Structure formats: structure tokens, C-alpha cells
Amino acid sequence: MPSFAAIFARKTVESSYPAQQQKIRSSRCRALVIGSGFGGAIAAYRLSQRGIETVVLERGRRWVTSNDNDVFATTRDLDGRANWLNRTDLFTYAIPPIGERPTEPLDRYVGLVEHLHEDGMYVLAPAGVGGGSLVYNTCLVQPSEENFYACFPREIIYKEMNSEFYPEVIRMMGAGPIPDDVLDSTYYQGARLMRQLAVSGGVPIHRINAATDWNIVRDEIYGRRRPSAIEGDIWYGANSGYKNSLDKNYLKYAEESGFVTVQPLSNVLDIAEQDGKYSVTCARINEHGDELSREKYIADFLFMGAGSMGTTKLLVRAKHTGGLPNLDASIGQMWGNNGDTFGHFSVGAPAGAHEGGPAHLVATDWKNNPMGPQTCIAYPDHTLPEDAIQYLGMSIPTEKGYFDYDTSTDKVTLHWANKETERTRERMRLTLEKFAGSIKDPERAKMAIKSIQVGGGDATAHPCGGVAMGYASDLYGRVKGYKGLYVTDAAFIPLGTAACNPALTTAAFAERSMQEILKTDIA
Questions:
Q1: What global pTM score does this model have?
Q2: Residue ranges of domains in the chain, CATH in brackets
Q3: What is the pLDDT of residues 464-481, one digit of tens each?
């Protein structure tokens, strides 16, 4: 089989002088969106409905599945398509890592996930047209009203979120629960076992609204399409096309309107105010990260959708370098890890650990965990023993991280104290003990409890905050200090999304914000 390097042969672009010294082309648009994940895609679509000329700048490439060859890397055969411009750093999902890392450096490529080693925290950040929807587990989990108000201000009406904005995101993304016939198939043994253990352990369990085309998963099961979901390929795209990612709905409809242009491989460098408008400089890059040219966009309205890490770092830098000096002092504060943990245990019998994706069921230990609400989602992990079940845990974090800017290095860094890491892991452990302890055979139950391993707390794929509501922005994402500057992504979320993964709540808030902004701010 040809190597990734051979398939995607590097094309060198020659220029007579460095790109930084070339003349910067300037363009004008009414609205500019940075990032194409949940916040950016929704902003672009709603702007398109109002007929507003909009440009979306996305640092990653566009990915289109094909029946002819694999577009994405797979979890069993990783290559540069998995990594954002990093040849050696790959995350293994077992806790502690059991699988082997690649022994040779990967091809340098604009892959799907960037690895950020910050001060006390390891963060995974997506890149690509569609942002996090390309790499998440298609989970759209909604918090309870009680958990919602443990995280968000009372001025936000949960009943409105529940009746209008949450359902709209689910509708737009074509999301729905795993069907009975798929859940009952051979490949979803692990899901059925999770359900059995949760019920026996007294933990409520539900089917997730997943942004998954379950008909494609059926095609995989019956051999009509290449296996992807059923083989546990959940992180680095989906070659069968089972994910209803944002490029297939919100962004697709935005582009079809004729008012929105999505510009991939455009890495934003600087943001500044210029005569009451916004000047944004980006580097146009090739698929190996080489800078080809620089462009400047002048926009009346600027929507930040580069994710918690991208949006926050851009704005913190702009404040300290003078581009946006009037940003509120709380910019870069109220950052959280969403209470993320990872854990697994062995059940002493085949558990389907290597197959049956994406995530399907969610256990909500929200009432009876003495340390606070804990959510658990099982997912496949081929690096684990066959008798193990792997879980992602999410809770309500209390520890707060912050960003600062170092003038000497021109670098923005996230700082995390790790004071609550052990407590976060222990809360997850208490819920996993309920599952493991519910195994009917007493000896197997003891062995399962003893085998529990929990990690995380100092690592997250769900970064939240940095331009948080009620702090650096108002409750509709208007960034304080500037008119026409908005945050629509997870940077808007203080600390975490109420013991759920951020996708649905971030998107619902983006819908809510855009409804208000288009009604009151943009004529």
C-alpha cells in the first residue's frame, strides 16, 4: 500500500522572496467569521439567511469523503492526516496508554487535531472545515435544568433553550438516537453491556441524540459500505461518511446561499480595530503548513468561532499587542476543562471494546454521586483488551484556568493549577464502581472494581471559556469593549457545559446569540 507521503506528494511553491515580505492583499466584506466549528458555522448560516456577505476563515483543509479511497486516517493506521502540523505527538486514548505510538515520525500535514501542551493542561483542538464536528463522537447531549443553572446565569431561560434552541440544532444536524436494529447488532455488544451494567448499578441511562447517519452505519453492518463506525473509527473523521458534520448541514446551506465564502487553509495571525472596523490578517498555507501569502480582511462585523483555545489566544494577543486594547480585563479568564476524565475497567469476558461506534448511550449519575453530577459515555478503543469498556467522563468543573501573554516570546499560554484533578478523577471512579460492582458474579465484580483506571483532569478535548459570558462578553456573545465583535464558540462558555460534552450547548447558545444579534445589532 502506498504511503501517505506518496499519495499526497508534497508540492513546493517557489517564490523569489519570503511570504512575509510580499505585498499583503486586502479584501473587504460585511461580516468575517474566524473558524468553522459549531459557533462559526452557525454564525455563517444565520448571516447568510439575512443576505449578509460573509467570509469564513478556516485554518484547516476541507475534507470530502469518497467511495474510491480513504480520505481520513484511521485509529489503527495513523498518519499525518490525524495531526495538525506535528509529526510525533499522537494521543492514545487508553488510560494509561496500552497501545503503541508510531515508531517513526508522521508526515507533516494540516491534519485534524492540534496538540497543545500548556502550563498544567494538555488540550486537543480541532482543525478543518467543520471544526470539532469532524472529530467528535457525534454526541449531542443536553444538560438537565438543575445542572444548567449550576453553570449558567438565571437570566438565561432554560425553558427557551429546551423548547427552541436545543431542538433546532438537533434538527439541523439530522441527529437521532441509535436505532434498535443497530444496537442489537453484533458490533454493539459493548453498548448493550454498558446499558446492563448501568441499569444494574442504579444509574440512569439514555440513548444519545447522535449526529450520525444511522443508515450509513446499517450499510456498514451489511457490507454495502466500507466499515468505519462499526470498527471504532470515531476520532479522526469517518471514511464511510456516517458523521453528519457541519460541512454537510450548516456550512453547506450557508455556501449554497451565495452570500458565504468558506476559505480553508487560512491561518489567522492578527486582529485589530481600524477606523471602527476590524482588520484581520491571515496566512494562506499549503497542506504542509508552508506559508504562501498573507491576506488582510476588513469587516464591519467580526465573529469569533475558532474554538476556546483559538479564539481566546487571538483576543488575548490582540489586547496586549495593541490591536484591541479596550478588551475587558477578564479576557482570558474563566477557562475550564469541562470536568473531563477518561476511565476503563475489565469485565472478565468479551466486551466488544474494539468496535461499535460512535458513542451511543449516556449514563447520567447526576443525583446520587456524592461528589457531584457525573456523566459517562462509553466508546470503542482498539488499544484496550477485548474485555474492557472505555468511558469518557464529564462533570461540572470548579477550577479556573487563565491565559497570559509573554511579550518576549509573543506567545499566549494557558495556565492550570491542577488543584482539583484528583477530586475530578475520584468522582468518575465512584460512578465506574457502580458499573463494575453491578456484575452479577461477585468475584468478577471484585476484579472489575480493582481494575478501574481513571485519568484525565489535566487533559481535555472539550476546552471551554476564555471570553466567557458575564465576564468578557455579555449574555449574547457581544465582546466587551468593542461594537460589532462577537464570540459564538465554546470560548463563550464559562468552565464547562453542565456535565455534558460542549457540542450541543455551544451550538444552542450560538443559535440564541445569532437570533438576538441579527434582530438588534445588524441592520
A1: 0.94
A2: 23-63+136-175+244-337+461-523 (3.50.50.60)
A3: 999 999 999 999 999 999
